[in-house]
Design goal:
By secondary structure, the chain is α/β, with parallel strands linked by helices. The protein has a single domain (8-189, 220-244), classed as 3-Layer(aba) Sandwich (Rossmann fold). It contains eight helices and seven strands.
């Protein structure tokens, strides 16, 4: 028996990194996967892998910053599997650690629209049918930048603080309707979004990564394991939590 048998999971950013790792792990634990990403070709490869391993999955194209695209993707997913039990809002982008005076309005809007508005768009599209079903799990991927400065630039930090507050409010508003909303706050994790930064060998970045108690960056699979915990009944008494999975970044 898998931890997610007979569940359907909708995962954004599923074409790479933490979203892909969640898709593969959740499928192994028995979930049917609606793998959503703006890169349709990338997410199709994840779906192929799930099917090769005996799981069920569909790939859908989504631009989380566009409410029309989100509604279409959710509709397509529901047409395939009829319900969504678990939502993981994982899609996101970095702002290259830009301070506010180096953040153009265009960059600000891009980061906020994808990282924060995107969570709102997808949650609002999925939540009504969860409420109708009287149960559902929402997992939002925040960041240690939801707690402290230095995990990103001005726009990224603002967006991740917003995700933390939004997650708490979701729990407050809908916990009594059978919805569990929690967030994960990853530290430095090697993924498609951060690979270029880590490979650059930037001294300041690597000092931050290597100075945590773990002495290394994390893997997408380690974040997926935490997400599985939140998606499953193992975390049935957790509501509105922002759970650091950061190698000890926040103890510094």
């Amino acid at each position: 028996m898998g931890k997610l048998d007979n569940k359907v999971a909708f995962i954004t950013g599923a074409g790479s990194g933490m979203g892909a790792a969640q898709s593969l792990l959740f499928a192994k634990e028995g979930a049917k996967i609606i793998a959503a990403d703006i890169n349709l070709e990338g997410v199709k490869k994840i779906v192929e892998k799930i099917k090769e391993d005996g799981g069920e999955a569909v790939a859908v194209e989504i631009d989380v910053s566009d409410s029309s695209s989100v509604k279409d993707a959710v509709k397509e997913g529901l047409e395939s599997f009829e319900r969504i039990d678990v939502l993981s809002n994982t899609a996101g982008v970095l702002d290259d650690y830009a301070p506010t005076l180096e953040t153009s309005e265009e960059l600000w809007d891009k980061i906020i629209n994808i990282n924060l508005k995107g969570v709102y768009n997808v949650t609002n599209a999925v939540l009504p049918q969860m409420i109708d079903n009287k149960e559902g799990v929402v997992i939002n991927i925040a960041s240690i930048a939801a707690f402290v400065a230095g995990g990103g630039g001005a726009a990224y930090t603002a967006a991740k603080h917003g995700i933390a507050g939004y997650t708490k409010q979701l729990s407050f508003d809908y916990g009594n309707k059978g919805i569990r909303a929690n967030a994960i706050a990853p530290g430095a994790v090697e993924s498609g979004m951060t690979k270029e930064i880590f490979e650059s060998g930037d001294a300041a970045v690597m000092e931050s990564v290597n100075s945590v108690p773990a002495g290394r960056y994390g893997s997408p699979e380690e974040i997926a394991t935490a997400a599985l915990f939140l998606a499953s009944e193992d975390s049935s008494f957790m509501h509105g939590a922002i759970m650091p999975v950061d190698g000890g970044w926040l103890v510094k």
